[in-house]
Design a protein that fits this description.
- It is built from 6 helices and 11 strands.
- By secondary structure, the protein is α+β, with helices and mostly antiparallel strands.
- It has one domain.
- The strands form 2 sheets. Strands 1, 2, 3, 5, 6, 7, 8, 9 and 11 form a 9-stranded mixed beta sheet that branches. Strands 4-10 form a two-stranded antiparallel ribbon.
- Helix 1 crosses helix 4.
């Protein structure tokens, strides 16, 4: 009797879990594909010359293809994105999934949806991204990335860029909370995986992410 109950419970858990896992995997793949389009958009944007010229010095690139007002909490903003880390011989890792959101994110342009790229410029910035959760501006400094020709360099752990409706859109990320999205990581790679495995050890990868990795490499090459 006990064995039958255990088998029934296992079947029930599997029956419920598999559709959820498949749904998360599909959504994760969509995030990667949209992030790839965002990287291409930033590469082609004439206002993003500083980003292109300095991305080669970054330790990581966090891409949020759609930061939506009201998506995180009422009155706030949020979105899911992917982080890639630069490894040995300037090879970029496969993506790890994160969310970013806060009631205090302030869009300085009128768009409801923005594409956001964060250049992680310091080890401190990367170390905090490898934690389960941290707050921009408190745990790691963040500044708006310089835009346009003749811009001056900014000093911060993380430089933030945003585009809305196809043009540059200023955004304030002070106080935004960044968290690992473990279910997307597990669903995308089909096993339990930590960001450190993907980003530091780089012993986890997916062929599906190759186009995104190639687009990031092209973004670096565009600034050389």
């Amino acid at each position: 009797m006990k064995n039958k109950i255990a088998a029934l419970l296992l079947f029930t858990i599997t029956f419920v879990s598999l559709p959820c896992l498949a749904d998360d995997a599909l959504k994760a793949r969509e995030v990667v594909e949209k992030a790839n389009l965002s990287v291409k958009n930033f590469t082609a944007d004439p206002n993003m010359s500083y980003l292109r010229e300095n991305i080669g010095d970054a330790q990581g690139l966090f891409v949020i293809p759609a930061m939506v007002k009201g998506a995180f909490i009422i009155g706030g903003s949020g979105g899911t994105g992917v982080l890639l880390a630069k490894g040995d011989q300037d090879q970029w890792s496969s993506p790890a999934f994160y969310t970013m959101g806060s009631g205090s994110i302030g869009f300085q342009w009128g768009g409801e949806v923005s594409e956001i790229i964060l250049m992680v410029m310091t080890q401190n910035g990367m170390d905090h991204l490898l934690s389960s959760s941290f707050k921009l501006g408190a745990d790691a400094s963040v500044a708006a990335g310089p835009v346009g020709a003749g811009t001056k360099a900014q000093t911060a752990d993380i430089l933030a860029y945003s585009r809305s409706k196809g043009v540059f859109a200023g955004v304030s990320l002070e106080g935004a909370v960044v968290k690992v999205r473990p279910k997307y990581n597990s669903a995308y790679y089909l096993k339990e995986v930590r960001p450190v495995d993907i980003l530091v050890a780089q012993n986890i990868s997916s062929p599906h992410a190759d186009e995104l990795r190639n687009s990031v490499a092209a973004l670096v090459a565009a600034g050389n």
